[in-house]
Design brief:
About 14% of the residues have low confidence. Strands 1, 2, 3, 4, 5, 6, 7, 8, 9, 10, 11 and 12 form a twelve-stranded antiparallel sheet that branches. By secondary structure, the protein is mainly β. A hairpin with a 2-residue loop joins strand 3 and strand 4.
C-alpha cells in the first residue's frame, strides 16, 4: 500500500474545510443591493408608481417660523406628484393632516398631482389629506399618505389612497 494514498474517509474530511472556504468566499463577493426609492399610491382606483430614481427625492426648507418638507417624483415628463408638509415646529416623525393658513404660515399637508396636461391641487377651501412620517433622518424619508385633489380648471376631484413613499433627502 502506498504511504501517500489516503483512505476515502480521510479525503472526505479534508474536502469539507476546503469547500467551506470556497463557498464562504463566494458569499462575501456579492455586492449589497442598491436602495430603491419610490412613491406609489392608488389614485381613483388606479395604482400609480413613481420609480424613476433620478426624479425622486425630498427637500427641506426653514424660513422664519415656517418648516417645510417637499417630497416629489415624476414618471417621464408628463406625470408628477409633489407632497408638501408644513408646520411652525421642526418636522419629525408623526402625523400631519388638513391644511390651515394663518398670517404668512401654513400648517398641514398639501398635494399637487399632474397627469399629462391636467393639474390637481389640494382644495384650500376643503383640504382633505393626511400623512405619516415613519422615518426621517439626514438622508432618507419614509411614510404614508392619502388625500383628495381638485382639478384646477374644474370641480373634478381625484382620491388618493394607499400612498407610500421612500425617498432620499437631497438637501
Amino acid at each position: 500500500m502506498d504511504k501517500l494514498a489516503l483512505c476515502p474517509f480521510t479525503r472526505f474530511l479534508l474536502f469539507i474545510p476546503m469547500a467551506l472556504l470556497v463557498f464562504s468566499c463566494q458569499e462575501d463577493e456579492k455586492e449589497p443591493a442598491p436602495e430603491t426609492y419610490f412613491i406609489q399610491a392608488t389614485i381613483n382606483n388606479t395604482v400609480v408608481e413613481f420609480k424613476d430614481q433620478p426624479s425622486l427625492g425630498a427637500t427641506t426648507a426653514h424660513y422664519g417660523d415656517q418648516y417645510e418638507l417637499g417630497i416629489y417624483g415624476n414618471i417621464e415628463e408628463i406625470t408628477g406628484i409633489l407632497i408638501q408638509i408644513y408646520d411652525t415646529e421642526p418636522l419629525g416623525l408623526g402625523n400631519y393632516s388638513g391644511l390651515v393658513q394663518t398670517d404668512n404660515q401654513m400648517v398641514g399637508v398639501r398635494f399637487s398631482y399632474v397627469d399629462e396636461f391636467d393639474n390637481y391641487l389640494t382644495d384650500l377651501s376643503n383640504p382633505e389629506g393626511s400623512l405619516t412620517i415613519s422615518m426621517l433622518n439626514d438622508t432618507l424619508v419614509r411614510g404614508f399618505f392619502s388625500g383628495v385633489v381638485k382639478k384646477t380648471s374644474s370641480e373634478e376631484t381625484l382620491t388618493i389612497t394607499n400612498g407610500e413613499f421612500f425617498v432620499k433627502l437631497v438637501n
